[in-house]
Amino acid sequence: MGTVDTLLGDITAVAADAIVNAANTSLLGGGGVDGAIHRAAGPELLAECRALRGCETGQAKLTKGYRLPARYVIHTPGPIWRGGGQNEAALLAACYRSCMELAAEHGCKTVAFPSISTGVYRFPLELAAPIAVRTVREGLQRHPGIERVTFVCFSQAVKDAYDGALSSTG
Ligand code: AR6
Question: Which residues pair with 64 in a beta bridge?
Fold first, then answer.
């Protein structure tokens, strides 16, 4: 089975087969990691995204990576945190599951994720990290072609949460 690790850094610099974008349902860009990915990939990314006509929360769509070192970008709109009673946890798991499926369909061996929904969308980090880790591990079992998944953490606090989830869930 493939391995999971964490990295402190900027996902736009990661040369994985696919990097994941914490997008919104329009797929037309925004702030946070979404803005960084669009800036680094160049305007061709927005043109391809426009043709996709959006994406539902919890689902995912794939584009090329253009000027990024990654071959593909997998765009997934995470849930906006509304207190936890609006199916947020299941929707966040669906994001990770959809991205792993799409990565496997496209023959990706290495995939890099940001911490989906825990920035602008305010999903609590301590709840999000174990959901992310568990769902990625299930995806690695289901998709043996994926050899490595990296959680790319933009701050030490994020990295601590993912490292903690990785060690406490075995
Ligand atoms: N590399 C890795 N992680 C990053 C980077 C980067 N370059 N930049 C930020 N992060 P967010 P969300 C981290 O807000 O909560 C956008 O406007 C960030 O520190 O990017 O899913 C979209 O268009 C945090 O840990 O995504 C949507 O409207 C994590 O990435 C909305 O924000 C996610 O934070 C999505 O909100």
Answer: 72
Active site residues: 34
Residue nearest atom 34 of ligand 1, based on CA coordinates: 119
Taking the CA atoms of the chain, what radius of gyration do you get in angstroms?
14
Give CA–CA dist 165/121, Å, rounded.
Answer: 20
Q: Model confidence over 46-95: pLDDT tens digits?
A: 999 999 999 999 999 999 999 999 999 999 999 999 999 999 999 999 99
Work out the burial of residue 133: count CB atoms within 10 Å of its CB; fewer than 13 is exposed, 13-18 middle, 19 or more buried. buried
Q: Are 17 and 71 in contact (CB under 8 A)?
A: yes
C-alpha span between 119 and 79 (Å, rounded)? 11
pTM of the entire structure?
0.98
The CA distance from 14 to 170, in Å, is 26
Are 5 and 12 within 8 A, CB to CB? no
Instruction: Please give the distance, rounded to the nearest whole angstrom, from the Cα atom of residue 2 to the centre of ligand 1.
Output: 25
What residue owns the CA closest to ligand 1's atom 5? 33
Backbone angles phi, psi at 147, to 5 degrees: -95, -30
- CA dist., res. 136 & res. 67, Å (int): 27
